[in-house]
Amino acid sequence: SLMPFTLTVNGKAHVIDAEEDTPLLYVLRDELGLNGAKYGCGVGQCGACTVLRDGAPLRSCFVPASSLGGQAITTLEGLRAPNGTLHPLQQAFLSEQAGQCAYCIPGMIMAAAALLREKPRPTEAEIRTALDANLCRCGSHNRIVRAVQRAAE
Ligand code: FES
C-alpha cells in the first residue's frame, strides 16, 4: 500500500511516496537521486549500500525506508561540508587512491565514518575489524586501511 512517510536524509526531511516495504537504498537512489550508496548483494552481506543511521552503519538494501521515520540518515553525499569541501575520509581515499573498481568505496567510507565517530584514533586492528564485513573484490584492503589511517591523523 502507498503511505507517504517522512524520511530525514542529510539533515533534510523528505516526504516519500513508496510502498512500505521499499528498501531505503531504492528510495535514496530512485526517489532522492542520491547515488552514493551502491547495490551489491541486496541481502545485507556486502556493505556496498552502507549509510549511517543516527551515526551508526546501516545496510540500506534490506531495511524498509518506511521504518526509519524520525531517524537521521546520512549518505556519502551528506559527509561533505555545506560548502562542498570533502570530508577528511573522502579526501584521504582519493589521496591514497584507495579504490580500484571502487564499487565498495562508498560503503567503506561510511563504515569508516561510523568508526571515527566512535574512535577518532583507531588502531590498525580496529580499522580492519570495523571494515571486515565490507567486501572488496579487488583486494584494495591495504590501501583502504591506509586511507582511514590518513583521515584519522
Ligand atoms: Fe546491501 Fe550488499 S547491497 S549489503
From TrEMBL:
CDD domains: fer2
Domain of life: Bacteria
GO molecular function: 2 iron, 2 sulfur cluster binding; metal ion binding; oxidoreductase activity
InterPro entries assigned to the protein according to its UniProt record, in alphabetical order: 2Fe-2S-bd (IPR002888), 2Fe-2S-bd_dom_sf (IPR036884), 2Fe-2S_ferredoxin-like_sf (IPR036010), 2Fe-2S_ferredoxin-type (IPR001041), 2Fe2S_fd_BS (IPR006058), Beta-grasp_dom_sf (IPR012675), Diverse_Oxidoreductases (IPR051452)
Leader sequence residues: none
Keyword Metal-binding: yes
Coiled coil (residue ranges): none
Keywords: 2Fe-2S, Iron, Iron-sulfur, Metal-binding, Oxidoreductase
Domain 2Fe-2S ferredoxin-type: residue ranges: 3-79
Keyword check for Lyase: no
Protein name: Isoquinoline 1-oxidoreductase alpha subunit protein
Annotated source species: Hyalangium minutum
